[in-house]
Amino acid sequence: MFTLRRWWDKNALKAGLIFLAIGTAWGIRQTNGGLIDEAYQVITRPFQSPSTQKQIENAYVLELQQRVIELENQNQKLRELVDYEEGSSLDTTTLAAVIGRSADLWWQQVTVNKGSRDGVNVGDVATGPGGLVGRIVNVTPNTARILLLSDPTSQIGAKVSRSRSTGYIRGETGSQATMQFFEKIPDVRPGDVLVTSSFSRLFPQDIPIGRVASIDRGTSPAPEAVIQLSVPISNLEWVAIHPYEPKLDVDAAPAQIVTDDNP
Amino acid sequence: MGGFAFMTSLRPRRRSDSRNQIWNWVFTIGSVLFCLLILPMRLPGMNILGVGPNWLLIWIVAWSISRSAFESAIAGIVLGLLQDSLTASFPTHALGLAIAGVLTARLQQRRFIREDLISIALIIFGFAIVTETAVAMQLTLQKIFDSDNALYAHLGSIWQHYQRVALSSAILSSLWAPALYYPLKRWWEKYAVTE
């Protein structure tokens, strides 16, 4: 008992400090680094550049072109289908500037300067000039963290706008991604525009993603395509955030989720 | 954290000592905060293939080089948890940074390394690969044992990504190492002398 007491007298401060350090780090981790994100937002505020207007306009024109293609295809489908349900249009919560990138090398994330104070919620969808950017995974009062679609862990249900062939897109950390088709012989050509499909649980349908760069028909079980993402992921400066509720109960009522591809 | 060694000695202190001590703490915690805040930035020259230097690794090497393995492990865990908070709680960075800290302390105790900038750059090159391996191993184990919740669809894609990340992180971290290592080291040395 006495030796224990003496050990405690000698090491109480040390033990307390260790406990404090780990406790603080644990606490910050449990709050998803909210404090650090907020501090980062305050410190980088002077450097948050206003957008380079021209770049955005160019990318915006590209996005509009892709949207027009998508709308034309949709229109054509509409004539064929009698019981077509109208696709949901996106409301925009807010525009946000990108103020930081991922804090390690394994995640493809960006931090933006709008948070719950501006009505941003976890699960919301972010689009940028050119199309889909990703979805919100963490929110603090003045910042939000977006998991980019180029992250290898994000998988997005997608379809070829022209032929309605469906599959899913997996990020490859760069400006390109891989798409795996569900069909054995999909109707797809290089240059085809891809949009999010109605099978996607985490994203609303019909947001432009990119174009088909090349197709590898030799892979098993289904062909793969290399996708050129239309959003300039590496020098992204602004994103628009749209409210969205992820459809996580897909098993409950699949009939309600499949709206236009499988009437 | 600034010096467990002297704090445990219970000799009476002068006032300037305690003031020094406070400054040491401010500097230590401030430098960690600085590293955390610089992590999400991609300034020109700090960027290969969208990957930046691993500032926390440089910090942990500077910290561990003149401390015991235990102190290094604790610091590694603390920094790892902090980095987790900025990304995601799995895979944790605490493991890799703790390993890097312990190994640095052990290497130093065996006098395998000298403390000039070239050897520091080499050590950091090696440990950058070690820390990234720790992350890749966690992802691989998750894929093998808990395939349903695995973050990556294929083992191949983990290790493909690992190659790219480990190499560019190692190069950038070792090149940027002196910028952070030198001031930290100088401060802790100067502080130890005044102590």
From TrEMBL, chain A:
GO-annotated cellular components: plasma membrane
Database matches in Pfam families: MreC
Gene3D superfamilies according to UniProt: Rod shape-determining protein MreC, domain 1 (2.40.10.340), Rod shape-determining protein MreC, domain 2 (2.40.10.350)
Domain Rod shape-determining protein MreC beta-barrel core: 98-241
InterPro entries for this protein: Cell/Rod_1, Cell/Rod_MreC_2, MreC, MreC_beta-barrel_core
Gene (UniProt): mreC
Species for this entry: Phormidesmis priestleyi Ana
Domain of life: Bacteria
Keywords: Cell shape
Protein name per Swiss-Prot or TrEMBL: Cell shape-determining protein MreC
One Gene Ontology biological process: regulation of cell shape
Family listed: Belongs to the MreC family.
From TrEMBL, chain B:
Keyword Membrane recorded: yes
Keywords: Cell membrane, Cell shape, Membrane, Transmembrane, Transmembrane helix
GO terms for biological process, alphabetical: regulation of cell shape
Chief location: membrane
KW Iron-sulfur (keyword) present: no
InterPro entries: Cell_shape_determining_MreD
Transmembrane spans: 22-43, 88-105, 117-141, 161-182
Protein's cellular compartments: Cell membrane
NCBIfam families: shape_MreD (TIGR03426)
Name of the protein described by the UniProt record: Rod shape-determining protein MreD
Species: Phormidesmis priestleyi Ana
